[in-house]
Amino acid sequence: MHSSRTVGIYLTILLAVTTACSKEDAQQIVEQTANRAMPVAQQAVDAVQQAISTEGTINLVLDTPVAASSCYLSLSKLRPNQPSILQLTSYPTAEAEDFPSVYVRADVSASEPSGLSERSAPAQMFVQPEEDGPVWYSAPGDSVRISVQASGDGSISVSLVGGTLTNSDTGDSIEVSGEFAVPPR
Amino acid sequence: MDGSVKIRATTDMRTRQQLSPVRRWRGREDRVGRGYHTIVSHILLAGLALVCGMQFVSPAVLAGPSDTEPAALLDVRSGKVSRGLLAKGQKLYTEAQTNVDEFEKKLADDQLKSIRPQQINRTYATIRQLGRAADELEAIGETAGVDLRLRSEDLQKRVIQVIDAYRVLPDIAAGLSRSRELLSQRIDRAQAKRTRAEQLTQQGKYADAARTIFSATDELFPMAAWFREERLAKSLRPFDKAHRDAHTGLLQLRTESMVQTVSKLRDRETPDFAGIIDNVRSAADAIRVKGSVQIDQETLGGPALVIHFGEQWKQLQLATLRCRALDWAMGMTPQEVDQGDLAMSHAEFSDEMAAALAVLIDADAERVNNQNAGALYVAYLRSVAQLASLTGDNQLGGGNQFSAILQPELDKLAGKSEVLPNAIETYTNVTQEFLRWLERVAARGAAAKASSCPPLADVFAAAATSRDNQPGLIAAGTNDPQNIRLMSSVSDVMPRLASSLVGTKVSVSDVTGLDSDSGAGVSVLQGRNYARVVHQEYLQGAISNLESDLYVSNATPPLSLPAMIAVESARRGDMVSVGGTITAIYLEPLVQRVATLPGPAWTLIRLGGLTTEPPEMLPIEQVILRSSVEPKWLRHRYFFVDVEQSPSRNSPQFNRRGRNRF
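^ inputs. structure came back:
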């Protein structure tokens, strides 16, 4: 549980778009740098990062129920014509991590949080119910699927629509289900 | 113990007491030089280093004691003298061992009388010659000499037991009486040789003196072993003294010659710390002006220079290790060596090297324009990442790790681009937490396997500790796994080690992938252990997954240093730890191994650090265990591979995101 003061710090939407560099500048970069650098420059121009931090909730069912009283969302775009990257965490920063701890990363088509609408997007997920306990994670080939929906009031709901997680210590797999709720800012 | 044994033991003991401070001969170069030895030694050492280099990559061809050849002799460091003495020792040992085995078999079969006493005496003389060859090897700093001495002492005990059994057999009293009479006659006849040997010793002609007196003592002392008579022992004491004086003189010559040879090698190997720092600084100045430097007819930009100087860093660190071992060979204690200029200079150099490379990047950042900053940043990221994982946790300058020292300059370089900082921030945002979770999963996976794969150093220490009156390599009760010294011969210890270790599950830490097509890696030297694992065949799927997780492709490189380090270290095959089964073990002498470390052996130690040595150990007595480990699981910092699971789980077609869209 995070204090409202902490939550307040993260409530701001971060929109970091480079405006000082035109596409013409970027083209110059592409032409004048080595092959490897071309996507770097292009990616730099289009990189967008947005974050919503709020006191949401996470309710999951693994072998036992896992509930977190915070949910932080960020939406980033590395390159044009590629999906955006949605991240959900139960904590605002690694330094402020609490347990149970949850992390989800998924490719989504929306560029803005308000435009989020996915019926079944593959996602990678990590859940650690206790600090010194095992991590349930998406093993290679076992991604979970999520549905994401932004509402008109600015709230965002995320549902796990299927998938299994693997236990880091035993290698056992388990079906996972649950909901992420991000209330309006 | 009979009189002859006492004489033999006394001779050896006094000789060694006089020899023990080998280092006192260092620097006394007013004695007769043996220039050709130096040249030949250098040539042979270079050849040996080359061979060792190949062996480092492909240890299947290594000589020396192993689980399949437990009685093989330890390798020697260098040169014609060492090789010659080792060959001589091998021949004498084989002959004596074969004969004593036969004597003991006859004894067990109650057929001892079928052996003529003269045969036993000749074997006893062979054992004495073996002991002297061992002393000579020890005098030139070879651990193989310590091992051969222990073997000769063991053989001597066994042959004395045979004699003791023989001399109480019924019906040999008359023969013994004749032998006693014969011995008295030969002692009288040998007095002239003794006198001559004493004269030669006084003239400093130790080799001639030794030849003269040894021919007498090798005849007389075995004969005397059959009798327990003070009168005989007393009459042999002058021979013992003449023998000891000549032998000691000969050993001193050996030591002086070795010190002369090794000193020159040591001088040549001494790392030019200041020189490489100056070169980096000069390169930085040139980079600041024109962006490249001409080295060996090649034009190198800043990132290539980081690789270039990184290679020199590795080799300088190796040279430092070699020099320490050469100092040990000349009799210095680790404390003396590590309080000397070499270790101090190395520590300062490592700090300065990191700082100088930072200056190099800073110079390039000053020079580069907005358009070229992106390409340069990625190229530097890759170069720095390749070195960063090799420095491990070593703190270089101001208590910071290598990557932390260079990060500000990389940030400055990125800042020259108007667009790159934003791209890096976004890239970091979508990879940083992911990496943290991957690291956590990998650590948990390895921890779950830890109990079934204890650290190799612990398993080795348990197997090597003396017990049940059987000397091992670690004194009972000392709990000092770093101090692995020969207290019993290799041929005695090795079978016990092999039965305890081969087939046992262990884990090894800090594995670096070798720069070759071997598909293998080598763990850092921990205490007196290191291991080789062939593991890269199991990594490809996990590497592909990691690259995909970090949005890396040929066209899209990692944009943060942690991500680049993750990818580069995985591609090289660097593992935090590896668990598996020991399939083979090899025992190597510490001094010889370290003194001849070949180029690829930079993997044995992280850049910027040196091995920690017990301050008062005698390096010549120390050995290293090298193991081959067949991996069962592999822990990279960001993934864990259980090789016993279906390989398909780690195969590239199973991309974690289910589709590769980046």
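Chain A has a mean pLDDT of 75. Chain A touches chain B through 55 residues (CB under 8 Å).
thumbs up if we can close this ticket
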